[in-house]
Design brief:
55% helix, 39 helices, three-stranded antiparallel β-sheet, five-stranded parallel β-sheet
Length: 878
Amino acid sequence: MEQGRTAHLRTGSVDAVIRALGLDRRQAREFARAGLGDAGGSFPAAGSDQSAGLRISVLGPLTVWRDGTPAELGPPLRRAVLALLALSPDRLMHRETLIDALWGADPPATAVNQVQAHVSRLRCALDPGRSRRDPRRLLVSTGTSYRLSVTAEHLDLLAFQDEAGRAQAAQSSQDAAAACDLYEQALRLWRGDPLADVDRLRRHPAVIGLYRQRSAVIVAHAEAACTARLYNQVLPHLRPLTLREPLHERAHALLMIALAGTGRQAAALKVFEDLRHRLDEQLAVRPCAELADAHQRVLRQQIPAAREPPAEPAPAIRLIRAGRATPERAVPRQLPPAIRHFAGRSGELTALTGLMERAMRSGATVVISAIGGPGGVGKTALALHWAHQVAGHFPDGQLYVNLRGFAPDGEPLPSADALRGFLDALQVPAERTPARLEAGAALYRSLLVGRRVLIMLDNARDAEQVRPLLPGSPGCLVLVTSRSRLTGLVAKNGAHPLMLDVLGENDARELLTRRLGPDRVVAEPQAAGDIVMLCARLPLALSIVAARAAVRPCLPLWVLADELRNPRTRLDALDTEEAATSVRAVFCWSFQQLSVPAVRMFGLLGVHPGPDISVPAAASLAGVPVCAARAALDQLARIGLLAEHAYGRFAFHDLLRAYAAEQACANESDATRRAAAHRMLDHYLHTACRAAVLLCPARQPLRLVPPRPGAVPEAIGDDKHALAWLEAEHRVLLAVMALAVGSGFHDAWRLPWTLVTFFQRGHWRDYAASQLTALEVAQRLDDLAGQACAFRRLGRAYGLLGWHKDAHACMRHALDFYRQLGDAVGQARTRLALAWGIRTAQLRRRTAPGTQSPRAVPRGSRRTRARQRAHHHRLVSR
C-alpha cells in the first residue's frame, strides 16, 4: 500500500493488522480513516481518496461514484430502477416487481421495454468495458429477473448493516464503549433521508424499512451510550429521532436519561411532560412502564453523571497512507463564557433550535444563522447563550472568533488570520498551514469532514469576511453575528437571517431585575419602569445602568432615572469610560463605517421628531433627490443604525435618536439644521394639504407659499391614496405639529387646519389636541381670525368627545371673536355647531345609563381629560 500497488485491504487483513500492532479502539478507528481499508465495513466517502472503484450510496440522495468521479445515471425512472436493485443487494428481483414499484396498478404498455432499456443503460454506467457474459459484472440478468451483485465496499447500505452488526456484537460482549464507536461509524454513513431524490420510492416498503433500521440502530446506540455514560455522543442522534417519531416511547426514555446524565434535568422532565400530553391527546393512553421508570429516575436524580471520554494516548504507530501522516483529532472548546444575566429572546431561541433540529433531520450540508441588529441589542449575548445550550449536540468541539468587523480601531480581523487561528485550534502544525487563503480554507474544510462542530463568527463586517470560514460538510452549524444585514450570505450561501430589535417591555424589566435583584426593583417600581423606557429597552444601556446601580447600592433608582431624562445628557449617563461598553462608543463604531451622504442623513434624522420617516420625507429633510435619500437610508439600515420596520419607512430607538442629534449639533450649523426643519415642515404641510383637498373637495383649500428649495411634496393621486398617506403619517404629523409650535414656526397653525377632515374620521382626541396647538399659535401671533377658527373647531372636537360644557364654552369664545371681526359667515357656522352640540348633549342625557349617545365616545382617563382641560383654560384665559 505504501508503494501504491493496492488501494484497499480486505476486512480480515485490517483486523489482523490491528491485532498484530496492539492498537486500541481509537487508534484502530484512525487507522481505518487514514485509508488503509474499510476497518470492518466502514464505507468510504464518495469522492474521497478512498473511492477507487464503484461506490453506490442510498443512505441519502442516490449517488454513484466510479474511481472518484460521479457517474451520470440518467432520467428519474432509471435512477428508481437502480435504487430498487440497491435496496435488495445480491438478490434476484423479478421484472414484474420492478414494474409494480414504478407504475403501480396501471403500468404503460411499454413497461417491459422501458425496464429492459433502463437496465441496459445502467450496465453501461456501472460496468463500462465489460461484456455481457463477464462473471464480474455487477448488474446481472437471469431470465426475467435482475440482481445487483455488490458488497459492503460498493454499497453504503451493506456497510451500514455490517457496522451495526459489529456494534451489536460488541454490545453483547459487554463492551459498551466499543459498541458506541461502531454505532457512531455506522450512523455517519447516513447523509439524510434515504433516496431523498427518488420521489417514486418515497413510500416504498423497502425505504420505510431503512428508516426503521436507522431508528433501531439509534436506540441501540443510545442504550450502549447510557451504559457507558457517553450521553453527549448519542444526543445528536436521539433528538432528531424523537422529532421524526414523536410517539416513540423508548427513544424518549433514552433521551431523558441522556439529558439528565449531562445535567439537564429540567429539559429531561419537559420531554416527559410533552410526550405524556401527546399520548393522552392522540392515543388516550398513559406512558409505558419504561418511560415512567426513566421519569422517576430523573426525579430522584439517579442517573449517573456523564464521564469524559478517555484522553487519547500518544499514537503507538504513525498511520500512513501515500506517505502522509494523519494527525490525531483535536476537540476545541473556544466558546467564551455565556452571559450570566441573560433574559428574554424566547422566540429567537426557539427559532435557532428549530433551525438546528430541521438541519439534523435533513442532513443539511452546512447551516448558517446570521444574527443581525444594531449595536448593543444583544446579538453576541443571544448567540453565546444558545451556543452553550446546544454545545452537547456538537461533540467534535466549538470554534469561536471575534472578527472585529465593528471595532474601536476600525480595522476588521483579516479572514486569513481568523482561519489561521482555527487551524491552530485543530492542531495543524505551522509548517503545514498554507500561505494562500484559498488553500488554507480548503484544508480547513477538509479537517471538518465527518465532524460535528459549532462555529461562531462574532461581529462580522460583511459576507466576504465570513465565506472562507464556512465548512463544507454535513454536521456543522455556523452562527454569524453582525450589524450588517449580510444579504450576500443569505443569497449565495443559504444563511437564515435572524434580525434582533430592542427587548420587549417585560423582557427588559426582567433583565433589569436579574441585574439589580428583585428587592431593589420592587422597592422602586416606577423608577425601574422609567429606566427601562429611557434606556429604549436596549440591553447594553440597561446593563450599564444596572452596573452603576450595583456599584452604588445606596443610590436610589429615581436618581438614575432623572439623569436619563434629559435627551442632551442621556448618553453621558450611559458612558462607562470603556470603548467596548459605552453606548456612545458602540454607536460610533457603526458611524465610522458610513459614507459622507449617509453621515449627513443620519445627523439630520436627529432633527426629525419621529417616530419614523418615509423616503420622500427624508429626501426633503436632507434636500437631496429621492434616490439619493434611499441609498443613504439603506446604508444606515445595513449596519443597524436604522430599521426598516415597513417598506419605505425607517425608524430608530430613542438612544440612537439622541446620538443622531449629537452628530447634527457637531457637524451642522444652526442655520443648516433650521433649514432642514423648514424643508421637512414644508414637505408635510404641502402633502397634507393635497390629501385634505382630495378627502373633502368642498373645503376651500389654504393658500400656501411655495415650498422651500429642496422640499419635494409627495404626489397624491386620489382620495384612497390620500387616506392611506394620512394613516401612515398620522403619528408623525402629530409630532411635527408639536415641533413646529415649540420651535416657533409661523406656519405651525396651517398643519392642524389641513388635518381637520382626517381627524374627524374618528381621531377625536388628536382633533382636540391639534386645535389646542392652532389656538396657541394664533394667540402667539395675536391672530383674531385664527383664534376664532381654532375655538370653533376645538368646540366641535370636545362635542365629539362628549365634553359638552367645554364645547359650549369654546363655541361662545368663537362667537365673541367672530363678532369682533364682523364675520357673519363665521358666526353662522359657530351657531350651527353650537346647536349640534346642544342636541348631542340632550340625546346623551336621554340615553339609558350604561349606554352611549349616538355621536359621543367614552370620556377617557381622568388624568388625560384634566390635562387637556388645564391647557384649554390656560389658553382661554389669555
